[in-house]
Amino acid sequence: MQVLRQPLGPGETDHELIWLSVSVASLGLAATWFSLGLPWPRCLFHDLTGRPCLTCGMTRSAIQFFHGHFLAALKWNPLVFAVLCGVTAFDLYTFFALVTRAPRLRNSRVFLRNGRPGFHSDHRLTLIKHRSKHADATPKSVSICVRLWLS
């Protein structure tokens, strides 16, 4: 997969605006929830088994992260810390792209031409089968291409 920078096309869905809105709304909802003093979320898995689940410490990790105590957030739950770092990086990219109207990052797709797969820059065979456009691709050629790509 190659990542390309290209301007937002006419009629193209603005995914950056949608996901930035979702992220900001989620943060606003969480801040409102805790500022009103509503009860903290309960973990049904922990209540039933008494054992910690994969997301135990998530709320405390998020609170520490948003207070700027990154080491404490990492100690509470490393998975949530990594996700919050990724969401923050994406939100910064999205904000920059929306404000400056910069070209957006999109992945390139390699399509079949006459039943032959295209090549990526790393020379792995890739196949994206579109039945409406490329009806000549047989299941046998698909399995050969997938085997070559995985090797």
What does this structure look like?
This protein has six helices and four strands. The chain is mostly helical and 151 residues long. The chain folds into two domains: 105 residues, no CATH class; 33 residues, no CATH class.
Quick recap of the structure?
With 151 residues, the chain is mainly α. It has helices at 15-35, 44-49, 58-66, 70-76, 78-100, 139-150; strands at residues 3-6, 104-107, 118-119, 125-126. A two-stranded antiparallel sheet has the order 1-2.
Described by strand count, sense and barrel closure, the largest sheet is:
2 strands, antiparallel
Globular, elongated, flat, extended or rod-shaped: what is the shape? Answer: elongated
**If helices are DSSP runs of H or I spanning 4 or more residues, what is the number of helices?**
6
Strand elements, count: 4
Oligomer: single chain
Which class do the helix and strand fractions yield?
mainly alpha
Overall mean pLDDT stands at 76
> How much strand?
5-15%
Terminus-to-terminus distance: 16 Å
Question: What's the gyration radius in Å?
Answer: 22 Å
Helix content class: 40-55%
